[in-house]
Amino acid sequence: MRSAHRVETVRSAERTLMAQLPPGALMQRAAAGLAAACADALRRVYGSRVVLLTGSGDNGGDTLYAGARLARRGAGVTAVLLNPDRTHPDALKALLRAGGTTTTPSAAAQPIARADLVLDGIVGIGGKGGLRPDAAHLAELVTASHATVVAVDLPSGIEPDTGEIHGTALRADLTVTFGTHKPGLLIDPARTYAGSVRLIDIGLASTLPATPDVESLQHADLAALLPHPAAESDKYRRGVVGIAAGSARYPGAAVLAVAGALRSGAGAVRYVGPAADAVLARFPETLVSDSGPKKAGRVQAWVTGPGAGDDAAPVTEALSTDVPVLLDADGLRLADVAAVRARTAPTVMTPHAGEAAALLGVAREEVESARLTAVRELARRYDATVLLKGSTTLIAGPDDATPVRVNPTGTPWLATAGSGDVLSGLTGSLLAAGLAPLDAASAAAYLHGLAGRYAANGAPTAAQDVADALPQVWRDIRA
Ligand SMILES: NC(=O)C1=CN([C@@H]2O[C@H](COP(=O)(O)OP(=O)(O)OC[C@H]3O[C@@H](n4cnc5c(N)ncnc54)[C@H](O)[C@@H]3O)[C@@H](O)[C@H]2O)[C@@H](O)CC1
Ligand SMILES: Nc1ncnc2c1ncn2[C@@H]1O[C@H](COP(=O)(O)OP(=O)(O)O)[C@@H](O)[C@H]1O
Ligand SMILES: [K+]
């Protein structure tokens, strides 16, 4: 599991750790890790040209100490001091002693244009709001240069706790972060500013709380979560997933949801709805029922909504059952908030940003720019597990104390009609297998994202291909 902690949590853990260490020890650990990462990025340190964008806080301090280490190895290092009177004094002395030089923002254009490497030490976890005008000007110069950009702790200008961006932020190729990930490094839009992220161990794990604020599943977590049939398994023990989806107008949504469910470990898939002929034509193994969800026979989880049109009856009926229910697409719109809140079995909702915006009564852009806030608010309002789809899919449980999961897999090629239907069938299957709602939804997002990458492999792909790629993803994860 990859963990991320909010600024307040990081600061408190740092205070505890610092009290046990000699003064300055933490900053030296951070600077040593940072300098090593920079040396890797440069390949050859001797003779390289390095520019340090240096703010007035400890983020600038880390940067100056790392610059001093690079200067001692033969790099030409120039620090651009944004606030000369308030620069970290000891770190600045160290840089000058190592042969580094300083300059002002107004004279920074030439060194930045010539640099091989630029370190962004303008602001770290002490930042609020987008970059101020003088720093924003430096960011423009960096964008125009060919230098490799390394962000120190985080790209300056992003909101560390949420991944929001208010104004200008600096774009990095690599972010070297200290002690723990910050949520903003994992969540878009800020995530794309961070480039690849490298975590430096400064000993903080010993003082951070065990439960992070945000987390991401990794391959090993998936391998542990995925259900695997045992000798005594039968189709009911493996889980029967019910799909109440599709309409005369959108039969394909039903087919794709069934495809996602069949490829994801369900012992059987039961279908109810007006698209039975289309479903059976493609998947003769589907159990089709003429009745609604309540009378359809034994099912361990329902998926309802994809391609449903305006018929609320199957959605309402599914919600009245005592098994987990997944609401997607039209089902989100047709579900009554009070009926969802009143359920005793889990409910999982899987909106994209547009659907989430409609449920929250805000503009789509507002959801996309503040994804963490939106997913938490929906989970709270519906007392449900919410999976907010998009460029970084987020999954929140109804309880605020549970970490929000960020899906690390995925590809923009998944933004293709019907791929969401595959995800809903896939999630339903994992719910029917007995996974807890947060695990089912985050494992499904992980598998779906990888299946999208496999299916696309750098070229356009379609929703059916994503479903067809699922077994190979499954095999690779278990291997
Ligand atoms: N506290 C610790 O023990 C450690 C801290 N470390 C470093 O210290 C950083 C935090 O240091 P600080 O608390 O001094 O804070 P920062 O250095 O992140 O930022 C504070 C300074 O940035 C300026 N600033 C704030 N918002 C700005 C904006 N939007 N545009 C331009 N300037 C802005 C403020 O005027 C302030 O002087 C971490 O990110 C990390 O890099 C590391 O050395 C590891 C140990
Ligand atoms: N920019 C993006 N990057 C990565 N994944 C994306 C992006 N845009 C959409 N997706 C993914 O593509 C899928 C699309 O689902 P959805 O919007 O419900 O489509 P549909 O309703 O057509 O099935 C979701 O899994 C979503 O997370
Ligand atoms: K920074």
UniProtKB/TrEMBL annotation:
Gene3D superfamilies from the UniProt entry: 3.40.1190.20, YjeF N-terminal domain
Any idea which positions bind (6S)-NADPHX? 58-62, 124-130, 153, 253, 307, 352, 421
Residues at which K(+) binds? 59, 120, 156
| Binding-site residues for AMP, renumbered to this chain | 389-393, 420
Q: Which InterPro entries match?
A: CARKD, Nnr, Ribokinase-like, YjeF_N_dom, YjeF_N_dom_sf
Could you say which cofactors this protein requires?
Mg(2+); K(+)
**The enzyme's E.C. designation:** 4.2.1.136, 5.1.99.6
- Asked if the record carries the keyword Calcium, the reply is no
Note describing how the cofactor binds: Binds 1 potassium ion per subunit.
Q: Name one Pfam family in it.
A: YjeF_N
* Keywords for the protein's UniProt record, in alphabetical order: ATP-binding, Isomerase, Lyase, Metal-binding, Multifunctional enzyme, NAD, NADP, Nucleotide-binding, Potassium
* Keyword hit for Transport: no
**Ranges for the YjeF N-terminal domain?**
10-210
| Domain of life per record | Bacteria
User: Catalysed reaction per UniProt?
Assistant: (6S)-NADPHX + ADP = AMP + phosphate + NADPH + H(+); (6R)-NADPHX = (6S)-NADPHX; (6R)-NADHX = (6S)-NADHX; (6S)-NADHX + ADP = AMP + phosphate + NADH + H(+)
* Domain YjeF C-terminal stretches: 218-477
Assembly mode: Homotetramer.
| Job description of the protein | Catalyzes the epimerization of the S- and R-forms of NAD(P)HX, a damaged form of NAD(P)H that is a result of enzymatic or heat-dependent hydration. This is a prerequisite for the S-specific NAD(P)H-hydrate dehydratase to allow the repair of both epimers of NAD(P)HX.
Name the protein family. Answer: Belongs to the NnrD/CARKD family. In the N-terminal section; belongs to the NnrE/AIBP family.
Please report the name of this protein according to its UniProt entry. Bifunctional NAD(P)H-hydrate repair enzyme
- Gene that produces this protein: nnrD
